[in-house]
Amino acid sequence: MSISYQKETGVFKLDTPNTSYILGIVDEEKFVGHIYYGRKLGNDDFRYLMRTGENPFVPSENGRDRNSFLDSFPMEYPGSGVGDYREGAIKVRTKQGHEGVLLLYKSHRIYPGKPELTGLPATWGTAAECDTLELILEDKVLGLEVTLVYTAFHQLDAITRSVKVKNAGKETIYLTKVMSAAFDMDNDREFEMLTMHGSWARERRLQRRTVGYGKQSCGSMRGESSHQEHPFLALLEKGANQKQGAVYGLNFVYSGNFLAQVEQSQFDSMRVMMGIHPENFCWELKMADTFQTPEVVMVYSNQGIGKMTRTYHDLYRNHLMRGEYKDKKRPILINNWEATYFDFNTEKLLDIAKEASKLGIEMLVMDDGWFGYRNDDNTSLGDWEVNESKIQGGLKHLVEEVNKMGLKFGIWFEPEMISPDSNLFREHPDWAIQMPNRTPSLARNQLVLDLSRPEIVNYIYEKVAKILRSANIEYVKWDMNRQLSDLGSFGLPAERQGELSHRYVLAVYEMQERLTKEFPHVLLENCSGGGARFDAGMLYYSPQIWCSDDTDAIERLSIQEGTSMIYPLSAIGAHVSDCPNHTVGRKTPFETRGYVALAGTFGYELDVTKIHQEDHDMIPTQVEMYHKYNDLVRAGDYYRIASYQENHEYDCYEVVAKDKSEVLITFIQVMGRANCHSRRIYLDGLDENQKYYIEGEDTVYLGSTLMYGGLQIENLWGDFRGKLIYLKAKVDKQAESDLKFFQS
């Protein structure tokens, strides 16, 4: 097994192919300490790393300095309020108003495989693929039982963590904070903290800063993972880059409020935590009640950021994503949003479909505006009934006509929202999240449905499902265009109002689980005003997520760089749109827009009946390009060669087949250069001894030459120009002939 327990030393050791994670039990009270996380170690006595032989010693030997021990010991899962002045991972409030928690070892269990997390998305693995440790801690004073769950994967350098809290006492306890993962480690290598930030239309920009004293964090209190921050944190030793250096990555498999934090103490130790944000969180635990946290995925790499990236990609492709499309080429779609906005009818949609079918596009997606009396974004959310004055002949007729042209049909929903100007709100004004006697805040002139109430969840699910049952719909875009505020529920008692945000996320998961089970052949794409809910939680239900509402190719370089640092390219919703771009007004070549969208699901966001003829005529070439390269893009290893965010001139990334037989390089010259020679880029991940053809050229180079000598890219004329370079492993004709001779 990849997890072992040394009974004589009280040490647990979790191994992956190249990493070890070690923790141990100390003192007669059985404190659980973090010992080590990093490069794989052999078996040894690791207890000295917890420094329990140094002043102030353990409490049984030096009770007069118990506080000093608690405030310096490297806790594996720290409590709060009892002498450790660093921030704790768990906090409760008793009926008497006390908040102290001290968790000590009770028991453990090690077994093959990985348990499901009830009602939550999580990575999965069989008994042959991973092992799990359940470490049970307890606070006997509170009657609180906390189970730390660790899973180590056999073939990937990934360890997952989650926590289950049980009230084993006789009185109700209020859980006010519970992190999914925490550990203490020394800041002995001048670590830096890598996070992602942004806003609508500029999501997941990278930020790197030195870890200093005190707390450094990122988080969301918006009811979703958000445009503004991302549920990811990495610690990088100073000097680490794409190819070298130690990197510790943590990613939260959750789509709601989160906190990711590093705290450096007076002793230069770092406390790392990730979990549900404690702001506005309070969960009532009656006797025997349990609470399950979402999962954190930890990845360690001693080969820089790039190795971390490829581990996350492999883990999520093979142990998180599910369903028919997870390993399958997606249909090339055309979405009518930027083509028509709300101004469309059956005739217009069929005109787009007819032209699209001639060009090799495979699906038409009808976006916002087909339901209720919605001709702008002020009305009708919640009224999920077809507007037949706009969709003449009904939805089934439209779908059948599109299918006759050889295209699949998809549709847009925003199931979690309600418009004040809607029949649903007039019938059920209490169904919106709001506080009594307070005017609720509108965003996009809409409110959010209170999904903590099962009757609302069932009503909305049935409305969506009825539409999907009515016609041959093969794709759903599930949108969420505003964040949560005014947190109040008419369905929860006063003592449970702090549960609203988490119950909301659980309900979204429940609806999407029901949808994927009832409609297993429907391709689900999640969206939240673009990329506000692009997270591992959503990826469990949909194999692709709309990356950003900003479809400008140059803005997408930075957005997709941050996204692809964690998530596989097959998950990134990316389209070619019209110019000037509707978000930033920039004009970029149609060819370049196609190259950038190729590093994703690929599709179109424009009116194919109105675009420039030159662009129109390029679509069949782009369609052919997608079909030629998508298997490689979807399943290959991703390497970041250059970052436009860093150099402000050009962007370059590469996908290498798992067997290293083919390579696709995307180079985008953002800023043209005067009086310059060619630019040299250094490839990565090739077979050093393999010869590679460069497609379109009569040249062959060894992999070692391309990686260490470099590849020349000519100075492209103008701004925003792009180039695709495809390499194919050269077959040695003599060796091939000899093989055929011996086989015969």
Task: Give a verbal description of the structure.
With 744 residues, this protein is of the alpha+beta class. The protein has three domains: 3-186 and 249-296, Beta-galactosidase, Chain A, domain 5 (Distorted Sandwich); 333-635, Aldolase class I (TIM Barrel), CATH 3.20.20; 643-734, Golgi alpha-mannosidase II (Immunoglobulin-like, Sandwich). Helices cover 21% and strands 29% of the residues. The protein has 15 helices and 39 strands. Strands 6, 7, 8, 9, 11, 12, 14, 15, 19 and 20 form a ten-stranded antiparallel sheet that branches. Strands 29-28-27-26-23-22-21-31-30 form a nine-stranded parallel sheet. Strands 5, 10, 13, 16, 17 and 18 form a six-stranded antiparallel sheet that branches. Helix 11 links the parallel strand 30 (576-577) and strand 31. Helix 7 runs parallel beside helix 8. The chain starts with a strand and ends with a helix.
Task: Give structural attributes.
744 residues; alpha+beta; TIM Barrel; Immunoglobulin-like; 3 domains; ten-stranded antiparallel sheet; 21% helix; 29% strand
